[in-house]
Amino acid sequence: MEHNPSQLAQASKVDVPDIQFVGVTKRFGNVAAVDNVDLSVESGAFFSFLGPSGCGKTTSLRMIAGFEQPTEGNVYINGQSVVGIPPHKRHVNMVFQQYALFPHMDVADNIGYGLRQRAPRPSKSEIAKRVDETLELVRLEGYGNRRVWEMSGGQQQRVALARALINHPTVLLLDEPLAALDRKLRREMQIELQTLQRDVGITFVLVTHDQEEALSMSDQICIMNEGRIVQTGSPRDLYDDPVSRYVADFVGKSNFFEGDVVDVNAGSYSIKSATGQVFSGFGSKGAPALVKGGKASIAVRPELLSIGSADGGNIDADVKILGQIKNRIFLGEHTEYLVECEGLGEVLVLSPKHIENIRGTFEPGASVTLGWMNDIALALGD
Amino acid sequence: MRLYSIAVYLFLYIPIGIIVLFSFNSGRHASDFQGLSTMWYGKALSNPFVMESLVTSLIIAFAAATLSSLTGTAAALALQRMRGPMRVLFDGLIYISITIPGIVIGITTLVALVTAFDIVNPILADMWPEGVKPPKLSLGYASVIAAHTLFTMSLVIVLVRARIAGMDRALIEASTDLYATPWRTFYQITLPQIFPAIMAGFLLSFTFSFDDFIISFFVAGPNTTLPIYVFSSIRRGITPEVNAIGTIVLAFSLILLVTAQFLLRARNERK
Amino acid sequence: MTDNKKGSWLTVALLTPTSMWFLFMLVMPMIVVVIFSFGERSAVGGYVASFTFDQYANLPARLKAFTNTLTFAPIGTFLSLIIAYPLAYYLAVKVDRRWRLLLLVLVIVPFWTSLLIRTYAWIFILGGRGIPTLLEFIGLEGIRMINTPFAVYVGIVYGYLPLMVFPIYVSLEKLDKNLLEASNDLGGTPWRTFMQVTLPLSMPGVATGCMLVFILLMGEFLIPAFLGGGKIFFLGNALVDLFVQSRNWPFGSALAVTLVIIMVVTVSLYMRLTLGGKNGRDQSLM
Amino acid sequence: MSKSYKDNMPITAKKFMEEFRRYEKGSVSRRHFMGVTGLGTAAAVLGSAMPSMMPKSAKAGSLGDRLIFSTWPNYHNPVNVENFTNDTGVNIQINAFGSNEEMLAKLQAGATGWDVFVPTNYTISNYVDLDLIQELDLSRIPNHDPSSQNPMFADPATVNGKVYAVLKNWGTTGIVYNSKNLKNGPTSWKDFFDLTMGEGSGHTIVHDYQLTTIGAALCANGHSFNSVDAGELEMAEKLLIESKPHLFAITSDYQPGMRSGDAWMSICWNGDGLQLNKDLPEMKYTLASDGGEIWSDFYCIPKDAPHVDAAYAFINYLLDPKVQVLEFESHGYATGDTRVEALLPAETADNEILFPAAKLMNGLEFGAANTLTDPIRAEVIARFKSA
């Protein structure tokens, strides 16, 4: 485990990750907010920390920024250890959750703030020029003289971005930057952030509890729980190959059928549920192997379930279970059914529009058959 | 509701009206209205004692307000980062110095200072070389300012601390994140943020000190503040001069307010 | 580590002036006064060292001052509250935004002339040539106002009204007007809306205002002296009298110590009751 | 007329801000800024209104530039004080006091900084005993002429053969009453208290310090004005407390109450009596047949006076007969100095309030030294006030 990234850095500059955590632990009192974390963020990546509140993602971000110092372990930025280095000496910048714009300064003064702290200080005209360029970058031309409180939420967000980006930091940190925006604006900003990141080529590190946000923007997502990293990977990896029920549950929606592992066969598992039915599923890539006799769940994504009439005749599936429709929600491009399956609990099914069009919809209360193919079912530990 | 409010404003302003009206009284006694005249303004303004006591009050109020703004702000900044028994001790002292009546501050300060001077002055006299007049500690500007500052400093601490507590900590983090050193963060971000509270503290302290009678009465030593002058004039037959002084002070405060408003507006327009 | 060390040095440096002030202007004077309170008055006035409880034993000689202070202070506070509240409510909720600031400033303007002079104006208004003369026109003769408890209460309410209006205004101003509409919308009569929504939400302001006024009234000296004609004695008056007329320092010290104890105990109790402990303290005092 | 009124203003707001900016940036000198903005004029006007603010270094001679003077309110002619300042360059700070006890309290607390103060006859020996005042060098007060002084009033200045004070003026303490409300005015302190608890209930003022109020009650009981006898004082306290519910006020500021008509009767010094009577003829000043106070006030120099030379010069100046005439016109008390009396209009000598008939004076007593410090009297008045 012990290696020295700065030596590596000298060996080949290109391979040095922008951010690297080695055995980082942060304790507040007796509580470990971050517990022995190793990770690295490649240069130019859009990297997200995802997890529920209190999982340690914000603390990790704050250790990169320098607001917190690790209790144990080492944080490297650009191959250099930054432990003990205060925030103002780190070449990273942050976009704060509530933006933290300076209320007593106008927009231009906010954006130029970082430049003004430089020694030697750039000339007034130089600062003004860079501020104008950055305003343009975030599409706020001409807003320089506005007071920050006169700006809308989305505009404030851009000012905060501009204030950080103007410094061309090694890494831009974003702490739940979209949390304060309404749904529609959030969607727009997600796209905008992604585009911006590609344009400026700076590494972005985002903290969010919103899986949709993380999935849609990031190259790499690090899912955390109780201070530890659960899984790191691309959005697709996480969705298709979650290493645990926790990840599958957090990334997208999933149905779980619990039971005991009764058979293990070359990466495929058989799990006996409470109803006595035996389901099989594949183990996930990168997940620890399940043990026979242990507890596990079969995970099936709702969009991969088929739904058909109670006689079960018209669906093509390896496994079929019976249930009764409890609730139905029409969502436009698909219909969402909540089906009560005796002994297995509630199962969520997403039925696409084109199929509904052909087959017709099921009314609440109707008895139905649910089915899936064995090769899409995953067997996951907790 | 509206009528009620008008009645309350009348209640607040009738005495003021009376003061102003009587200041134009040409008679010798405040409550004997004998005709309009501005003679008492002339008398008040040319009365060196009125002017001296006004200047004394201004000096004391300004010094107390400045001192308490500085020490109070410093203490509020320090206390905000402090925990444990020392914090509890300071909280207690602040609480007590705000709670105890001015009259008790005046008396305790008088008693303690007089006792202290009785001990220190002979020692000073002994220490000084023969033939040179030894310095002698006594009541005066320093003692009033110090006594006023005890109360006003705690006032500033409470005000500034509330402001710091209400301040977004992220602003400070944002500043350090943007390469500002702790000192630059302090004067570029923290100070402007808490400045309204410091200013409010300064003004409150100034007002308190300027209007204080009872503490000054005990510890002002040879100095006569305006309230002391007014008090002693009132006790043995008030003349319209006192009303004229009151009106002048009121007018002066109003002019200050309007000027401040004007300057603020000018600054905002520039922005 | 060095950062922490630097931080603690800074803390000490920032606190030094304040600590000096507390030590030399509060703690030591209180100690001296406590010592004095066990002494004796010298033959010509002043203090003679001694250890006796005589001064404390003589406290009942000022019983009336205690009972006066402890009746006038709470009643005066209450009167200020019931007169200030509707005004604060009017300013915060009813009045047009454009006029609000002006009207607020108008509440403080009277404070910019000496309390002494303003109180003195009341001597005239309540005196024989003032309101009683007006009352004679409508046939009410022989009404005396000045130098009565009524006059003292008028002086108290007049002197402390703004201190009550401001905190209440602040807490009412923060109140979300939607809440009032919501309550009305849910069928609350205006009175019920007031009792169940407005009043509870303005309690912090009420508590702050009451405490400010109460603290100041407990040490009041000028208002009873001027408007009570020297007949209505508060502890403040008794104290001044002991130091500047009788020159009985030990007895004055004992009285001062007693007053401080009463203040600290009543105010702590009050805060515990209304604010539920420590956290409310800062807000409550301002 | 077509021009805007603004043209006549010393400076427009905009111009002021411009100038202020320039001043801030340092491109303008302070003098220029003051001149352009008119602040210089304002400062000059203010300065001239505050003569004491502008040190008169040209005139400041060997006397120094300041003097602290503690006296009673409305007891001096401001013109005199101003003239003295103009002549000598000594600025005078006046502290006003309402009772001798208060002056004593201040001096006992020490560190007053006073250079000259005005005590009443009966307090002087106390000050000497307490070592609070200094012996006067009369050669430094050439305007003081012992032969022109009425010894009856001037004598308390000499203690143990040494002169510690010089006479300012004298007066009596009697009763003022409103003859419209009280047809049969009081002639004694007994009447005073009887009327208070009877016909005039709710309309009487007594003083807020010990000597006169306790003295009046003592006289009403047939005792000496100056008694320190515990039994007699107990009776006096009883009378006072009994009368308290019937009082209008306990204050030495009795003129407003009398003038407004609220009060009908008060313990009164003759100078105030004179002032009241002059303005409102129904106000009658009378001495009580069963006793009362006669008093004289003095100039003294405290032991630790910081400006002794100025103090002597000031006292000497105030004793100049012509200056004393001006003083008299301001306060209305007889000076006890024949040189001054000679300069006053003839009718002054006939004024009964100023100079009461000898038979009335006979019952009056000078305040006794021990009343000032007596602990029982101190506690009696305090208990009465807080009862």
Describe the model.
- The complex is a heterotetramer of chains A (382), B (271), C (286) and D (387).
- Chain A has 382 residues and is an alpha+beta fold.
- Chain A has eleven helices and 20 strands.
- In chain A, the strands form four sheets. A six-stranded mixed beta sheet of chain A has the order 6-7-8-3-9-10, sandwiched between helices. Chain A has a five-stranded mixed barrel with strand order 11-12-13-20-14.
- In chain A, β9 (220-225) and β10 (228-233) form a beta hairpin.
- Chain A is globular.
- Residues 1-12 of chain A have low confidence and may be disordered.
- Chain B is an all-alpha fold and 271 residues long.
- Chain B has one domain: MetI-like fold (Orthogonal Bundle).
- Chain B is built from eleven helices and no strands.
- Chain B has helices at residues 2-23, 39-46, 48-80, 85-99, 102-127, 141-166, 169-177, 182-211, 214-219, 226-235, 240-270.
- The mean pLDDT of chain B is 87.
- The longest helix of chain C is centred in the first third of the chain and has 35 residues, at 2-36.
- Chain C has a single domain, classed as Orthogonal Bundle (MetI-like fold).
- Chain D is an alpha/beta fold.
- At the A-B interface, β6 of A face α7 and α8 of B.
